[in-house]
Specification:
Strand 6 and strand 7 form a beta hairpin. The two termini are about 35 Å apart. The chain has helices at about 10-20, 35-45, 60-70, 85-90, 105-135, 145-160, 175-185, 205-210, 230, 245-260, 285-290, 295-300, 320-335, 345-350, 355-370, 385-390, 410-430, 435-440, 445-455, and strands spanning about 1-5, 25-30, 45-50, 75-80, 95-100, 135-140, 140-145, 165-170, 195, 235-240, 260, 270, 275-280, 305-310, 340, 375. It folds into 4 domains: about 1-130, Response regulator (Rossmann fold, 3-Layer(aba) Sandwich), CATH 3.40.50; about 140-310, Rossmann fold (3-Layer(aba) Sandwich); about 320-390, Helicase, Ruva Protein, domain 3 (Orthogonal Bundle), CATH 1.10.8.60; about 395-459, Orthogonal Bundle (Arc Repressor Mutant, subunit A), CATH 1.10.10. Helix 6 packs across helix 7 (about 175-185). By secondary structure, the chain is α/β, with parallel strands linked by helices. It is about 50% helix and about 15% strand. The strands form 5 sheets. A 5-stranded parallel sheet has the order 2-1-3-4-5, sandwiched between helices.
Length: about 450
């Protein structure tokens, strides 16, 4: 801790120097305010003691000038004049506390300790506020990573408009949750939300499922039935895996989107429908359009706004908060008293690549809650492939075992192992980053970031 003392009294400076150095502080001295401002800029002190009455610029002027110049260190003013009024004036101008002269060594140290603790609390509050701002809640979706927060903020922004939206993302990334968020943030929130997996309906039933049918339209049609579009009237129709639709139905879907009307199978009259379309896919529809598997006119109709959900491995900041969230909601649902995950199990969860994304994570947490015998989830409660991750020793290259004096920091050892694995993957692929990313189960972007972080380009 470095303390700058600004006082024109040489005797007081000497006394404070002895008191502070004996207490373990590093001390910098200045004989007037101008010298104090220069030394504050040059030495960047952690705390400043400044006298109020000095020739030239006084202590209050020093406080104002220091703060105006961007100085952040806490300031303690020393004064024998003006009493409380002078102290209040100094604090209004940016000081943190005051010392009334004459004072003893214990009083000085107690005041500094109080200021340090207060500043520590301020920083902690600031950190927690930043964490709260960073850890955003969007309906049932929690996000801390910048990429995910941007996607969710854009979703809430476009939700207010009737525009069709296409959600891109791998299986398990939360596409339906995002669609539900869009619905809840729109002016259709009081209407129905109808979700359908386009790849799960047999091709022969697609038309009747989407558009409905009338009695007698085919064998087994013993009554009129509305289709998905009519069911979603006034609300939102979520078409998951829209890329799986066969070409004939793509044509009919395009007609519904253009005209706002459906005709039930076997009917002669059309019916007006007003359903907002949110589609989703884990495929590249642009590539499907190029290769003739998906109609370009339908693609441009459903992809007016495109939202991309990153894979869980590309947003590691979200994993800890997702774990705690899933632990809380599933423990309550299952009626189990499990509130914590022990360190080895947590390390395994944080080290895993999660190819199945949030859906796989949720599955693992629910399974662990069912298997846990005590108030904690342990490594034994995780699937075998995660236990292997959690039990893998973090031994850097060149080491064969952990000694008593080895570095046991999980953070540092994990980083060392990650760096080693990236190096090996790059060596195995002859430096081909795309192939290395596949081996490591990282995205190209994540691998590029880690190569820069660990300075592997230079090694």
């Amino acid at each position: 801790m470095k303390v700058l003392v600004v006082d024109d009294d040489a005797g007081l400076r000497k006394s404070l120097n002895l008191i502070l150095e004996d207490a373990g502080y590093k001390v910098v001295m200045a004989g007037d305010a101008e010298e104090g401002l220069k030394k504050a800029k040059d030495t960047d002190p952690n705390l400043i003691l400044v006298d109020v009455r000095m020739p030239g610029m006084d202590g209050l002027g020093f406080v104002e000038s220091y703060r105006a110049g961007g100085g952040q260190a806490p300031l303690v003013v020393m004064t024998a004049y003006g009493g409380i009024d002078m102290a209040v004036s100094a604090i209004r101008r940016g000081a943190s506390d005051f010392l009334a002269k004459p004072f003893g060594g214990e009083e000085v140290l107690l005041t500094l300790k109080k200021v340090e603790e207060r500043e520590g609390l301020k920083k902690e509050v600031g950190r927690l506020r930043a964490e709260v701002r960073a850890e955003r809640r969007f309906g049932e979706i929690i996000a801390r990573s910048p990429e995910m927060v941007r996607a969710l903020e854009m979703a809430t922004k476009v939700a207010r408009h009737p525009t069709s939206i296409l959600i891109l993302g791998a299986t398990g990334t939360g596409k339906e949750l995002l669609a539900r968020l869009i619905h809840s943030e729109s002016d259709r929130t009081s209407g129905p939300f109808v979700a359908v997996n386009c790849g799960a309906i047999p091709e022969g039933l697609l038309e009747s499922q989407f558009f409905g049918y009338v009695k007698g339209a085919f064998s087994g049609a013993d009554a009129d039935r509305e289709g998905l579009f009519e069911a979603a009237h006034g609300g939102t129709l979520f078409l998951d895996e829209i890329g799986e639709l066969p070409e004939p139905l793509q044509v009919k879907l395009l007609r519904v989107l253009q005209e706002g009307e459906v005709r039930r199978v076997g009917a002669t009259q059309t019916r007006h429908v007003d359903a907002r379309i949110v589609a989703a896919t884990n495929r590249s529809l642009e590539k499907d359009v190029e290769e003739g598997r998906f109609r370009g006119d339908l693609y441009y109709r459903v992809a007016v706004v495109t939202l991309s959900l990153p894979a869980l491995r590309d947003r590691p900041q979200d994993v800890p908060v997702l774990i705690q969230h899933l632990l809380s909601i599933h423990a309550e649902r299952l009626g189990v008293v499990v509130h914590e995950i022990d360190r080895p199990a947590m390390d395994a969860l944080l080290s895993y690549a999660w190819p199945g994304n949030v859906r796989e994570l949720e599955n693992v947490i629910e399974r662990a809650l069912v298997l846990a015998d005590g108030p904690q989830i342990t490594l034994a409660d995780l699937p075998d492939h995660l236990r292997d991750v959690g039990s893998a020793p973090l031994i850097p290259a060149g080491s064969s075992a952990l000694g008593d004096d080895e570095d046991l920091s999980v953070k540092r050892r994990s980083a060392a192992l990650e760096k080693q694995l990236i190096r090996k993957a790059l060596a195995r692929t002859g430096g081909h980053r795309g192939k290395a990313a596949e081996i490591l189960e990282l995205s190209d972007r994540a691998l590029r970031y880690k190569i820069q972080e660990y300075a592997l380009e230079e090694s």
